[in-house]
Design a protein that fits this description.
It is built from 15 helices and 12 strands. The chain is of the alpha/beta class and 364 residues long. It has a 7-stranded parallel beta sheet with strand order 6-5-4-1-2-3-12, with helices on both faces. Strands 7-8-9 form a 3-stranded antiparallel beta sheet, with helices on one face.
């Protein structure tokens, strides 16, 4: 497989959530990934669909001596290991960092968990909503009445999978300079907190209130919010800067109606006027009305609609995988988008070893 990460060998231990997503991103960029699964785990693999593309899958019983030795043989040949099990599980299997790095001193050992490898909650169960709850992220998202779960994007994928990728690629650069591998402890709580850095900074400077719907980016101002249209769909408005707001008001023909936005006491009236105006046309009519403008108004598209958007189509933001639209690879390198990795295939341990042995020979 070609790509910017062509020749990079990653050993992934099958898991759910962020680790498969990280593997998908890296596979699309050209990494050679062998994924170790438990025997008989085909159904679990099917539930992940396109996210599990781009792997060579090997089934090993890691609780057996033979399975453990097979895994160690692959570890010796890997550049990166990625696992998403609870702290201590890999150690109990005899595949922890100490053993792995003794076999392969240049190995990057990537560990993905919710709470991290240490701390009083390290061994507790949890999900995205729990991790972002402790970081202040969940508190900051929702309505005045209560926080609302923002899908599992902040903890699982933004704070988890993306930071795992950043961690292992950064550690690879260090290993290239020093010849020494290391352990990457990618905790979703750490990553979610890091994603909140700008909000915390603004809060410390007195520019962000610790109350939902009171700020510029959380729906607190009427010019950064969503509005229902005549067909019960929605448009998104993000006219933060004065010049964008001026164009929004002009195109809505509300210049003689709206009070000064600098006074927060006027915001309810501005919101009311926006809501009444957007309710007079359909979503697509508004999209056409604002097309090409700097008023920062966009149609809120569904999952079914997004892949047909003209701008996203022109950029090939979505691709086709097994006959269905899925998000394409990202980012774009030199103006050319990487093709999606192919469907995963199940092979024997011996075939996997031959594959990595041959790739080592090509690299040399």
């Amino acid at each position: 497989m070609s790509g910017v990460l062509s020749g990079l060998r990653i050993l992934e231990f099958a898991a759910i959530g962020p680790v498969p997503w990280s593997g998908m991103i890296l596979a699309d960029l050209g990494a050679e990934i062998i994924c170790i699964e438990r025997p008989g785990s085909e159904n679990a693999r099917d539930t992940l669909g396109a996210v599990k593309r781009g792997r060579t899958q090997v089934q090993l019983d890691l609780k057996s001596d033979a399975g453990r030795e097979a895994a160690l043989a692959l570890i010796e040949r890997a550049d990166v290991l990625m696992e998403g099990l609870r702290p201590g599980v890999m150690e109990r299997l005899g595949l922890g960092p100490e053993v792995a790095l003794a076999r392969n001193p240049r190995l990057i050992y990537g560990r993905m968990t919710g709470w991290g490898q240490n701390g009083p909650m390290a061994l507790q169960a949890g999900h995205d909503i729990n991790y972002i709850a402790l970081t202040g992220a969940l508190h900051s998202i929702g309505t005045q009445e209560r926080p609302i779960p923002p899908l599992n994007l902040i903890g699982d994928f933004g704070g988890g999978g993306a930071f795992l990728i950043i961690g292992v690629l950064s550690a690879l650069w260090h290993a290239r300079q020093t010849g020494k591998g290391q352990v990457v402890d990618a905790a979703m709580v750490d990553g979610a907190a890091a994603l909140m850095a700008m909000i915390y900074s603004r809060h410390q400077m007195g520019q962000w209130k610790d109350r939902r719907c009171s700020n510029a980016l959380d729906g607190g101002v009427p010019w950064y919010d969503t509005y229902r249209t005549a067909d019960s769909r929605f448009v998104a408005v993000g006219a933060l800067e004065p010049q964008f707001y001026a164009e929004l008001v002009e195109r809505l023909q509300l210049g003689d109606v709206l009070p000064d936005r600098a006074d927060p006491d006027n915001w309810p009236e501005i919101r009311h006027q926006f809501a009444d105006t957007f309710a007079t046309r359909t979503r697509d009519e508004w999209a056409a009305h604002f097309a090409g403008s700097d008023a920062c108004v966009s149609p809120v598209l569904s999952l079914e609609e997004a892949s047909n958007d003209p701008h996203l189509t022109s950029r090939q933001t979505f691709a086709t995988w097994q006959g269905k639209p899925v998000p394409g690879s990202a980012p774009v390198f030199n103006g050319s988008r990487q093709p999606l990795a192919q469907m995963s295939r199940l092979v024997s341990f011996e075939e996997a070893m031959i594959s990595w042995n041959s790739s080592s020979a090509r690299a040399e």
